[in-house]
Amino acid sequence: MKLFLLLILLVFQNTFAFESNKNVAAVEKIFLEEIKKKNSSDEDKFLLYNLAGRELYNYKFYDKSLEYYEKALKLNVTSDKTEAYINLLAIEYASSKSISKKTYNRALDYFTKTKKIEDVGIKKYMNFINTSFFSEGGTKDYQGFYGEFTKQSSIKRLIADKKYKEALSLINSKSVEDRDLSTKLQYDFLRSAVMGSQKLDLACKSKVDAYPNSIAWSIEACKALIKYQGGKKLSKNDILNVEKAVKDQESSRLYLVKILGDLK
Amino acid sequence: MRRANIINILSLALLLLFTSCNQDMLGAGYAVKNLVSKPFQAVGNYLSDSAYEDLEEKASKAPIPTECWVKRKSVLPGMEGIQNITDAIRENVCSCVPWGSCSVDECPCSRMCPEGFEIFKRPDLKKMSDLTTRDNSLSFRNGGGGGDIEATQGFCWGHASVTSKFNRLAFFDENAKPKYSLNSKDRSEQSKALSYYKELIDNIVDNKPTKFPGIKNLRELSGVPGLESYIADKVAHSWANRAMSTQGLSVGLATGAMKREESEKFFKVIKEKIDNNQQPQIVFTKKNKMMETHAVLVSDYIIDKNGKTILCIRDNNRYRSRIDRTKESCSDRMVINSDGGVYYSGWRDLGGVELAFNDNPDTLTQIENLKDHCDKEKGCGQ
User: Fold this and answer.
1) Residues A36 and A141 occupy one common structural domain
2) What's the complex ipTM?
3) pLDDT (tens digit, 0 to 9) for every residue of chain B, 382 residues total?
4) Do A85 and A140 belong together in one domain?
5) Interchain pair B230, A250: CB under 8 A
6) Are residues B353 and B253 part of one domain?
7) Which of A18, A116, A172, A207 is the best mutation test for B, with the most CBs of B within 10 A?
8) Pick from B175, B240, B177: nearest CA to B205
9) Would residue B54 count as lying in a domain?
């Protein structure tokens, strides 16, 4: 009943919390004061920590959200901890663009022990995390909501392993139309690596025509591909120039321009 | 709305009190527990949702006129000819509307920098659906291009979210001189310009109102090489922050058609958001197809001759050249069908359809930040 009354209290208080802003501090204060009260059972505390973790996640206060989910998990309760384990994976990715095996295994242990892994939704989600971040080979699911993320992770891995043909096979040419320049470049790079210099129509070329003087890495990279498709061999300098532009501007794309060195 | 919620909760409590044999209110306790921890059904945001509803209630009590021109205090002398008169009239009135051209002496701050949803209005927009144009959209589409499966590919949720943030928070002014020019022939200045605009883009993604000098609109900004791939990265990252959470996963698992009451409630929420100057983000899953999930913006709604509500969808999978046409004809439509479930043209019958969980928290943060920004800009709130 206490928890119930607290929820009603929160509904009344939250307007104050958001309007006077400094959202985190205000929200946190409401939760902390209630949680500190002696009569709250561990079950109540778990629900409140979970709720605080969720709200803080929604406002992108990831560190604070993590803190509350961890507090929830420390409690020895029988409540469903699925949300906390999944959101801890999401928080780690949001903060570092990566997920560690440790965090993944911790969630997997819980889902295995509680047999929640048999739930098709949990199973799909954990497979998605596994194939996107850890698995080298094996069957991958590129369909549906999480498909594109898994596909992009696979393409990056295949390019790093110089398996260009396999990487290209994952891209539907129709899906490249009207997309952003980096998606077009990925397609052009892979086609050039697999098919060689054949005067291919490059998807990125229209951008070079529109912005001939741009110093952007994407324009430098496309210019190099245009030269290559025009039948000219790329010099060491050409490649170094593109690599330098990528390093200076957007180093996360370095995996892609490494292909230039393999163009024959 | 908030009162209705509280009444509902109190009714639930009373019902449980009288129906439960459990004298220590365990029955009510369990009901609350279910409300709080339903990871794969409806993961609610109690604080942000009710804060949003509170704002909604306030807005309904104090509507603000949509347009207002006031006569300026000074009158220019020496007018000759029609052109001069027209020019003088232009110079002698100012717009006393949200983000209008008046000064604080000419128009009250409460009109120029209003509280709540009115702050989303812009002088150049007659209604929010005017945002559904190619110029106000990202220069690149999300994905799709193949069959049903391809339609769910891409980073739709991120695309919808980033587009909405730019539409609400960015102030483009192509005539203002930027700190560094993207068109400079000096490579070093061009490089500085790229970094400069990337910082401005970061502000938008962080829900901060931001001016973009030297840039005409979102289409132009997001088409600039170097910035295009940067924004595409933001789109992918925003998708991950939403889709990888429990709140995101729960939508992908909602494959059963909604009951009529749920569909009607959803349509009501969306209509109210549109009436309150927003293009809300919604997420849905195809009926009986787990994880065939998509996220879009709702541009507008129309009521047909039979009184049926039709939601007009701004679908990020659409080819950019078709955006304006889609808006004019409301060709991407969502309706409640005869069995009470939701139907979306192109996707047919849908399972779960809901307001994106980030929509209310983002809206609340944006309103607060826009109000602060406007107050500073206009010299209000001192």
Assistant:
1) yes
2) 0.89
3) 444 443 343 333 333 333 332 333 233 333 333 434 443 334 456 667 777 888 888 777 765 554 455 555 544 455 556 656 555 555 567 889 999 999 888 899 999 999 999 999 999 898 899 999 999 999 999 975 444 445 556 799 999 999 999 999 999 999 999 999 999 999 999 999 999 999 999 999 999 999 999 999 999 999 999 999 999 999 999 999 999 999 899 999 999 999 999 999 999 999 999 999 999 999 999 999 999 999 999 999 999 999 999 999 999 999 999 999 888 899 999 999 999 999 999 899 999 999 999 999 999 999 999 999 999 999 997 6
4) yes
5) yes
6) yes
7) A18
8) B240
9) no
| Residues A128 and A193 occupy one common structural domain | no
State the angle between helix axes of B46-61 and B359-378 in degrees (0 to 180), rounded to the nearest 10.
Answer: 50
Q: Give the integer Cα–Cα distance in Å for A10 and A109.
A: 34
Count up the domains in chain A and report the number.
2
Query: pLDDT (tens digit, 9 = 90+) per residue, A92-110?
Result: 999 999 999 999 999 999 9
Provide the domain count of chain B: 4
Q: Which residue range(s) make up the domain with A123?
A: 5-148
**CB-count exposure of residue B169 (10 Å: 0-12, 13-18, 19+):** buried
d(CA A117, CA A98): 22
> Looking at the structure, do residues A18 and A141 belong to the same domain, yes or no?
yes
A171 found inside a domain: no
- Do A90 and B246 count as a contact with CB atoms less than 8 A apart? yes
Smallest CA–CA distance, residue A158 to chain B, in Å, is 19
- CA distances (Å), origin A222, targets A160, A230, B198, B262: 20, 12, 21, 50
User: Would residue B14 count as lying in a domain?
Assistant: yes
The CATH number for A32's domain is 1.25.40
B233 inside domain: yes
Closest by Cβ to B37, choosing from A19, A50, A248: A50
DSSP per-residue codes, A14-48: HHHHHHS--HHHHHHHHHHHHHHSTT--HHHHHHH
Residue B268, min C-alpha distance to chain A (Å)? 21
CA dihedral A40, A46, A51, A52 (to 10 degrees): 80
Chain A residue numbers with beta carbons less than 8 Å from the beta carbon of B5 are: 11
The minimal CB distance from B291 to the residues A11, A144, A215 is found for A144
If asked whether residues B150 and B195 sit together in one domain, one would say: yes
- Does some domain include residue B370? no
Q: Which residues does chain A have within 8 Å of residue B291's beta carbon, measured at their own beta carbons? A: 124, 143-146
Find the domain containing B292 and state its range.
Answer: 247-363
